[in-house]
Design goal:
The protein is mainly α and 211 residues long. It has 10 helices and no strands. The chain starts with a helix and ends with a helix.
């Protein structure tokens, strides 16, 4: 049976669990590993463990946010080091072309605030810091946006896990399951909503450029 990152959190002591959270969030920002690291499930489980008292919610949020900031930093460095070669190289072909298009379009249109919006969009949040580095945007300029996005994202996903666990604990049987599923669905809808906003903004930008 395959163990998920969330399962791993339940099998290690709390100090190790915090390290796991930080490390896996950092790994999500590694270009060729990001799509294979399910941090949503990780933080939902971490939030649930915080409700149970196994972990501390502020520490979960701090570790996830720190991992996101560290990940953005290394992604920016990689983008700055390799430039557009990241997109055209042999290994980068494993990343869907439209995902690269969205990342580069977000940086061109929004610049630094793209980190805030795209932090909630899986895969694109991995690519945007790389694109920012390739565009030679200085990291010191991006850092405040990276930190703000990281904290907001960590609070949202871990918070949903915490609230879901509270519903599941206080409501019997099917009701708890339904509300837990609803909370998870809300997280997914949030990500999809942000993604849709990015796509609409991109379409408006293209329409203006064609006028």
């Amino acid at each position: 049976m395959t163990m998920t990152p969330g399962d791993l959190l339940t099998t290690v002591p709390p100090p190790a669990a915090y390290l796991v959270i930080t490390a896996l969030v950092v790994l999500e920002s590694v270009l060729f590993l990001g799509p294979f690291v399910p941090t949503l499930g990780l933080l939902l489980v971490a939030g649930g463990l915080a409700y149970a008292g196994t972990l501390a919610l502020p520490a979960v949020i701090a570790c996830a946010a720190a991992g996101a900031v560290i990940g953005d930093f290394q992604a920016h460095w990689t983008g700055h080091r390799f430039g557009d070669g990241l997109r055209t190289g042999r290994l980068s072909r494993r990343v869907p072309g439209p995902a690269w298009d969205r990342a580069y379009a977000a940086i061109r249109r929004r610049g630094r605030p793209a980190l805030l919006v795209c932090r909630f969009v899986p895969l694109v949040r991995t690519l945007v810091p790389h694109a920012a580095g390739a565009a030679r945007i200085p990291y010191r300029v991006l850092a405040p946006f990276s930190a703000t996005a990281a904290v907001a994202w960590a609070c949202t996903e871990a918070g949903i896990g915490y609230v879901s666990a509270a519903f599941r604990n206080q409501l019997p049987g099917a009701q708890g399951v339904v509300l837990t599923g609803g909370a998870v669905a809300a997280a997914l809808l949030l990500a999809l909503g942000v993604r849709a906003a990015v796509v609409r903004s991109r379409s408006r930008g293209l329409a203006r450029s064609n006028e």
